[in-house]
Specification:
The structure holds two protein chains of two kinds. Chain A is of the alpha/beta class. Chain A contains eleven helices and twelve strands. In chain A, helix 6 (193-210) links the parallel strand 7 (181-185) and strand 8 (213-218). By secondary structure, chain B is α/β, with parallel strands linked by helices. The radius of gyration of chain B is 21 Å and the shape is globular. Classes of the chains: A alpha/beta, B alpha/beta.
């Protein structure tokens, strides 16, 4: 990623907040907010895959949906390919839709059961391009070839396909308009292990061929390690750590990342015997009422007094690595060297 | 684990068939296995491989029709669970054999309190009075690590988080001190940090209570950490079984080998490209007459489509696999077996 430093990021997210209001009582008064995404910032370079990991309810899918403006964001800015997305009107947003697409988690629910494969893949073409019927069909066949679907199945309905094939239909639909940026929201979570690898390999092939940029949202850390160039870890609406894949998996810095990685069981009984998981106590707090100070302070094995009072700031460690934790803040490590922070582990 | 001990559960030739409008589906095809006291048997396979249906068949939990247990014996405690009367079976279910279902959201009744659901097996099977059942329920909730147990008896399932609900399910399954606990994907619906909590809990309880456990999962990592013995299922058959170390170090069946390679690791070296098992698992409209894996197997040869291989023992004790490659006489090229 040395050359990526000089290139402008394709996706630029700054201080993004997405609050869902809670209404209560007879007059549906606004009594609070679910802070699903609470001030996050990140960049994605062209051609890069950013993995976004976290447990259910941490807001990772909401991030994916709000940067594509599937939700109207509460505040913050999102810039994709040089154009502002978060606060533009509907018409100009619509003209930008072709460059940003999404692959959904559940291939069963995201395909209309009454439409044939050809009409599902062709719908974005009808909406955004003026093609003759021959051109349209040729494009549909081309897309089906790309994702490894037999052309003869173009007239079939989604229920006639297996889970992995349905996900291929969803991928073909996302590719129809030559997007630059695709949000993959848990694209393999609903698939069997032997099928997951097929879909991940397909996504990688397409990225190489079409020069795509991915935001890959997943809770499966081993798959994210495989596919992502950089990884962002989310906890309760905030990003706690961003780092390159190698750095994050070799040496996680944030206590939550450490716990998350150590919790993944190893498919090897020899290694398993020596694995010492950090078992976190308790559950994730409610995003409607996050704890004071650091969001992770209620479960953190290394919690200090300051964590319950003051929200930690994001600190840059260089090389694209950022951590939000008091263990590495200025007043804790007077030398302000990352190595000094690491010795605290 | 003591190999010489008498099995506590002995399953032979189990066959389960679903009658559907599209014809019969052979979900379980002549499955044999046993479970020894205090052992943890891991059952691995993809969805549709018949692992859940096998375990549900043992306790006749499948609705009939469409399910039909066509053949086999399930010997437990000196009786055949497939032959005994429904009344006798009720005495086994939930009391001598506990069952934890996959989804803690749907397997608890939303309109009854946790206290009521915990007390139900205690009163039905053990004949405890209301007060006794209550104090035992509190004990059980404390055992599975639910804080403030006494107050939480009055709560309904929706007031618990996913991980806590799964703990309640475990408490219910453990209520009557079962000899065998069947856990069907107990951590699949949970997050990794919560999964780690539940696995630690089961490891601890196993030593405390000394029961035998059957743990069904598709996650090879979970199995590596907790199982003594592993059974790999494909298309309703056991294709390989053996001690956990053997299965991971020296898998014999091509399906097991492929399954182990297709999962990327979180630690250690990272593969540039994932290994893929092409194609999909078959739907068994007929009882298998040939190897069910042959269409996806890179080592398949003539014999694989002519007959269905039986489980064959190999050098390591207790390690068996159902593959013609192990039959040295019929193997076409010797290097294929190692590839």
């Amino acid at each position: 990623m040395a050359e990526a430093e000089s290139v402008n990021p394709l996706v630029k997210v700054r201080d993004l907040k997405m609050y869902f209001p809670i209404h209560s009582g007879l007059f549906r008064t606004h009594v609070g907010d679910i802070k699903a995404v609470d001030g996050i910032s990140f960049d994605i370079m062209p051609g890069e895959t950013l993995g976004l990991v976290g447990e259910s309810g941490c807001g990772k899918s909401t991030v994916g949906r709000s940067i594509l403006r599937l939700y109207d964001v509460t505040s913050g800015t999102v810039e994709i390919n040089g154009s502002e997305i978060a606060h533009v009107d509907r018409d100009s947003l619509r003209s930008k839709r072709p460059m940003m697409q999404m692959i959904f988690q559940d291939p069963q629910a995201s395909l209309n059961p009454r439409m044939t494969v050809a009409s599902i893949i062709g719908e974005p073409l009808d909406e955004h391009m003026k093609l003759s019927s021959d051109e349209r069909l040729a494009r549909i066949y081309e897309l089906m070839d790309w994702v490894g679907l037999n052309r003869a199945f173009a007239k079939r309905y989604p229920h006639e396909f297996s889970g992995g094939q349905r996900q291929r239909i969803g991928i073909a639909r996302a590719l129809a308009l030559n997007p630059k940026f695709i949000v993959c929201d848990e694209p393999i979570a609903a698939l069997d292990v032997s099928i997951q690898a097929q879909v991940v390999n397909l996504l990688e092939e397409l990225q190489d061929r079409l020069d795509l940029t991915y935001l890959f949202i997943s809770h499966d850390l081993s798959m994210v390690r495989h596919i992502a160039d950089r990884v962002a870890v989310m906890y309760l609406g905030r990003i706690v750590e961003v780092a390159s894949r190698e750095a994050l998996f070799a040496e996680p810095l944030h206590p939550y990342t450490q716990a998350l990685l150590s919790a993944v069981p190893e498919p090897d009984p020899e290694l398993e015997r020596h694995r010492k998981p950090i078992v976190l106590q308790g559950d994730v707090p409610s995003p409607a009422n996050p704890p004071k100070g650091c969001n992770f302070s209620t479960r953190c094995p290394k919690v200090m007094d300051i964590c319950r009072q003051i929200e930690p700031e994001v600190r840059d460690f260089g090389g694209g690595r950022q951590v939000a934790c008091h263990l590495y803040s200025e007043n804790m490590t007077t030398t302000a060297e990352p190595t000094a922070g690491q010795t605290k582990n | 684990m003591p190999d010489t001990a008498m099995p506590i559960l002995d399953v032979k030739g189990l066959k389960t068939v679903f009658r559907t409008r599209g014809g019969e589906v052979h979900a379980v095809n002549s499955v044999d296995f046993d479970l020894r006291p205090g052992e943890l048997l891991g059952v691995v396979g993809e969805s549709g491989s018949g692992k859940s249906v096998t375990m549900m068949s043992l306790l006749r939990l499948l609705p009939s029709p469409p399910a039909e247990m066509r053949d086999g014996t399930v010997m437990f405690d000196g009786q055949d669970l497939l032959k005994i009367s429904p009344e006798e079976l009720r005495k086994v279910r939930g009391s001598k054999i506990g069952f934890i279902f996959q989804d803690p959201m749907t397997s608890l009744n939303p309109v009854y309190t946790i206290g009521f659901q915990l007390a139900e097996p205690l009163r039905a099977h053990m004949g405890l009075s209301k007060a006794q059942a209550r104090s035992r329920s509190i004990e059980l909730l404390q055992l599975v690590g639910i804080p403030d147990a006494e107050r939480r008896l009055k709560d309904y399932p929706h007031q618990f988080s996913g991980g806590m609900r799964q703990r309640v399910m475990i408490a219910i399954a453990l209520a009557c001190d079962p000899q065998v606990l069947i856990a069907d994907e107990p951590t699949t619906a949970l997050d990794v940090t919560i999964q780690a909590q539940i696995i630690e809990l089961v490891k601890e309880l196993r030593h405390k209570l000394g029961m035998a456990i059957i743990w069904i999962t598709h996650d090879l990592g979970v199995i590596a950490g907790i199982a003594d013995r592993v059974m790999v299922m494909y298309a309703g058959q056991v294709v390989e079984e053996g001690p956990v170390g053997e299965i991971f170090r020296d898998p014999q069946h091509p399906y097991t080998q492929a399954l182990l390679k297709t999962v990327p690791a979180v630690r250690g070296p990272r593969a540039e490209r994932l290994q893929v098992i092409e194609g999909q698992p078959p739907i068994m409209y007929e009882a298998p007459v040939a190897c069910s894996f042959r269409n996806r197997c890179q080592f398949a040869f003539d014999r694989c489509s002519q007959a269905n291989p039986a489980l064959t023992g190999i050098s390591a004790p207790g390690h068996r696999a159902a593959c013609f490659l192990l039959d040295k006489a019929s193997t076409p090229e010797p290097e294929a077996a190692n590839g």
